[in-house]
């Protein structure tokens, strides 16, 4: 970590630069998934199917909570990356200061509101009655952890936007080690620790994130990271109106994407809950495997977004286009390489999360064979959307996602259940993923995302060229209209 620093993503070979930059992100995703899986092993094998069902429901709520402020963090990351590409450190710190103040304030409000509403939310989700008390105990502590989870994720995203992926990785490693270590101690009450059951698993997450967040802040201060805001620069924490406006206008649509996903997942698990604990625990076990399958796409997509944003700031549009192509290729190779062994050995891996002889194992294996392929297509959408958003075009990816989830996946799952039963739910994943991929590729080719601006109102307020991406020549001589499904959603260049 002694040499951790920002990375210039506007130079060097695209493939090698993207791979080296994405590697710590991928390793971090592996750590997070390993952490969740190990915790699921403790909960599922030693506390039973009801406890695993409880965590599956509560974790969907946590995903929703993260999505609620994800957009602001992503908007800040893109603005920082564009500023870094333009070599404007002062602008980068202004973005960090404003977004940190906004981000932390909102996270505290969400935690304070959510804590007393935990049980009501779970009841609304149709959480099975036998799992409800366990889910409530788990979710209440997760709400307490929200500000620390948010700030850790926010700092990590900002550092990645600057080209520094090593620092977030090492502190995420600390989170995982602490979380895995505290889980059995607090679940079973080993040594001086109290026996907390399922609440101990959530408490371990809380403690691990508090310690690692504090360590990261102290480390950045000690190392005087290029993005560290020193005492004499504290004025940047006062919200800048132009930046705050951009964070909200650009961040809200990106956050809505996460909310759409999480609400769809909540509705999906509500449908799954109707089939009983065996099916729900099978779905929860399959979700553990799916986290590994989607890791390459998420890592490559996040790397592509930061890399494209830096090149937008540097006006290197040739590298923006190349980033999208190389990222898509990497997704197919890496995601496909994971899907095959997970299909072949799914019974062995699923049995890690379910008790031996559980009837849920057969359900889990069946649904996994149907749905896991969807992540191959999901990865393309993730990469392409990341590149498109790097310019500030945030509305079209939101519309495409909304159509795929709420116009295709949810109706498919609900309307075909009388005919296909639970299989309608599983088949809705690949069907909607293919449609989302086709719509995303269509907008990438024919949409006007290249002429978008991330900093809202910059032209009117006299912002410097470094703060506003220049409009590149479109690679399409005569842009054709986008497909009907997204034509009405495509904004004008200054409103994307």
Automatic annotation (TrEMBL):
GO terms for cellular component: plasma membrane. It is a multi-pass membrane protein. The chain crosses the membrane at residues 61-83, 95-117, 137-157, 169-190, 196-220, 255-277, 289-309, 329-350, 370-388, 395-412, 424-444. One of its GO terms (molecular function) is xenobiotic transmembrane transporter activity. It holds the Pfam family MatE. The keyword Repressor does not apply. Keywords: Cell membrane, Membrane, Transmembrane, Transmembrane helix, Transport. The keyword RNA-binding does not apply. Its main location: membrane. Residues 470-482 have a biased composition (Pro residues). It is found in: Cell inner membrane. Residues 464-496 are annotated as: Disordered. This is Multidrug transporter MatE.
């Amino acid at each position: 970590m002694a040499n951790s620093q920002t990375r210039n993503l506007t130079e060097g070979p695209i493939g090698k630069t993207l791979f080296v930059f994405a590697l710590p992100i991928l390793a971090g995703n592996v750590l997070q998934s390993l952490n969740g899986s190990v915790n699921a092993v403790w909960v599922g094998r030693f506390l039973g199917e009801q406890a695993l069902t409880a965590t599956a429901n509560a974790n969907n709520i946590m995903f929703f909570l993260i999505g609620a402020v994800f957009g602001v963090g992503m908007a800040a990351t893109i603005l920082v990356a564009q500023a870094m590409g333009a070599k404007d450190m002062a602008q980068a710190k202004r973005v960090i200061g404003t977004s940190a103040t906004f981000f932390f304030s909102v996270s505290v409000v969400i935690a304070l509101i959510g804590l007393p509403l935990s049980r009501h939310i779970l009841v609304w989700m149709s959480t099975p009655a036998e799992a409800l008390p366990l889910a409530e105990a788990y979710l209440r502590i997760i709400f307490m952890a929200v500000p620390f989870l948010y700030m850790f994720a926010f700092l990590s995203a900002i550092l990645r936007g600057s080209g520094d992926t090593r620092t977030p990785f090492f502190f995420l490693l600390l989170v995982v080690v602490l979380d895995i270590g505290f889980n059995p101690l607090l679940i079973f009450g080993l040594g001086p620790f109290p026996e907390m059951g399922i609440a101990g698993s959530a408490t371990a997450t809380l403690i691990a994130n508090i310690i690692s967040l504090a360590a990261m802040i102290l480390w950045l201060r000690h190392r005087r990271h290029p993005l560290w805001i020193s005492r004499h620069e504290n004025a940047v924490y006062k919200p800048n109106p132009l930046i705050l406006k951009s964070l909200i206008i650009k961040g809200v649509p990106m956050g809505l994407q996460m909310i759409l996903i999480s609400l769809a997942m909540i509705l999906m698990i509500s449908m799954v809950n109707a089939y009983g604990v065996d099916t729900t625990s099978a779905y929860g076990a399959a979700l553990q495997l799916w986290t590994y399958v989607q890791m390459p796409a998420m890592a490559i997509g996040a790397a592509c977004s930061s890399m494209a944003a830096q090149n937008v700031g540097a006006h290197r549009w040739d590298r923006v286009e190349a980033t999208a192509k190389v990222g898509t290729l990497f997704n197919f190779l890496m995601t496909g390489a994971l899907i095959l062994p997970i299909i072949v050995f799914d019974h062995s891996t699923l049995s890690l999360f379910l008790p031996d002889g559980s009837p849920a194992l057969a359900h889990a294996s069946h649904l996994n064979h149907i749905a896991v392929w969807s992540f191959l297509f999901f990865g393309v959408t993730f990469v392409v959307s990341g590149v498109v958003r790097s310019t500030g075009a945030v509305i079209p990816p939101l519309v495409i996602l909304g159509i795929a989830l709420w116009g295709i996946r949810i109706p498919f799952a609900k309307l075909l259940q009388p005919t296909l039963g639970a299989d309608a739910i599983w088949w809705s994943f690949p069907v909607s993923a293919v449609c989302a991929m086709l719509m995303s590729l269509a907008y990438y080719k024919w949409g006007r995302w290249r002429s978008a601006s991330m900093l809202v109102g910059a032209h009117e307020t006299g912002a410097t060229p470094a703060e506003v991406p220049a409009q590149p020549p479109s690679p399409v001589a005569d842009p054709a209209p986008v497909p009907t499904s997204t034509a009405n959603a495509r904004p004008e260049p200054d409103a994307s």
